[in-house]
Amino acid sequence: MMTGTPHHSAVWPLQARLAASLLNPLAFAHDDHLAAIGLELGVLRGLSGHDDFRRPLNTHVSRLLGLNGLAVDVAATDKLTGSDQARLALMLCSLGAEDFGGVLRIIAIARVHDMIGRLVLKSHCQRMEALFGEDVFDIAIRDVAFFFGTLGYSAEEDDAFDQLCGGSDEEALQALTLIGAEGILAFVSAVDEKLEPLVRLRFSNELNEKLSARLQVMRAEQQEHFVQYLRRRLPQWRAFID
């Protein structure tokens, strides 16, 4: 009779996703992190668009960014089998750019749900709907506030939220990215800090400095709510994190 850690059907697909991310950093790394590669950015991006150059360039970039050593550390089968939090962290770190942007919005709503619920000015409400979608208030007030309130933060003065409400379109989008990234980074760092580079590499140096200044430790209860919230908002992920 065989004994040991029970198998989870999501482990192998997640390990494959991790490998794909580590081997293809040019698909998600922000330009700020590519300055030391040894090629002009325009040339690097241009060459990476050709099949003959894409693989060797990604291999070179992965090595220079220190990603080669991550695979064994963060893909341990026993950890992924036994922890839905570990599987979710790996899922987040291996998302494509478009999917990652969508998740940023969902998490940003949770982070500022309390402040969204207290908005009074029509212009601010319209801005929230423009940034997050028409269902932003249902998610913030009826969903997050009721079931997952620990995910949010409330500040009397928060520059990022002020920019969400009243900044230019570009400032509002940057604020949304910062708030969402803060939630993702806090979760991933709490689950496995070795995965942190796969989050930070997606953002500019400036945004990473802001993240470091704002970042708080995510408590165990918050981690549980984080998993439950994304399971609820993204039911297509349940095969990976249930």
How would you describe the overall organization of this protein?
There is one protein chain. The protein is mainly alpha-helical and 242 residues long. The protein is built from 16 helices and no strands. The protein has helices at 11-23, 41-48, 51-64, 70-74, 77-82, 84-93, 97-111, 113-117, 122-132, 136-147, 159-166, 169-191, 196-200, 205-214, 220-233, 238-241. Helix 6 (84-93) packs across helix 12 (169-191), helix 11 (159-166) crosses helix 12 and helix 12 (169-191) crosses helix 14. The longest helix is centred in the C-terminal third of the chain and has 23 residues, at 169-191. The two termini are 26 Å apart. The relative contact order is 0.14.
In short:
With 242 residues, the chain is mostly helical.
Secondary structure: elements and pairs:
Elements: H1 11-23, H2 41-48, H3 51-64, H4 70-74, H5 77-82, H6 84-93, H7 97-111, H8 113-117, H9 122-132, H10 136-147, H11 159-166, H12 169-191, H13 196-200, H14 205-214, H15 220-233, H16 238-241
Q: Determine the fraction of residues in helical runs and give it as a percent range.
A: 55-70%
DSSP summary: helix tally? 16
Radius of gyration: 19 Å
* Low-pLDDT regions: 1-6
Shape: globular
The overall average pLDDT, rounded, is: 88
Number of strands: 0
Return the string of H and E elements.
Answer: HHHHHHHHHHHHHHHH
- How much β-strand is present in the residues? under 5%
Largest sheet: none
Structural class: mainly alpha
Distance between the termini: 26 Å
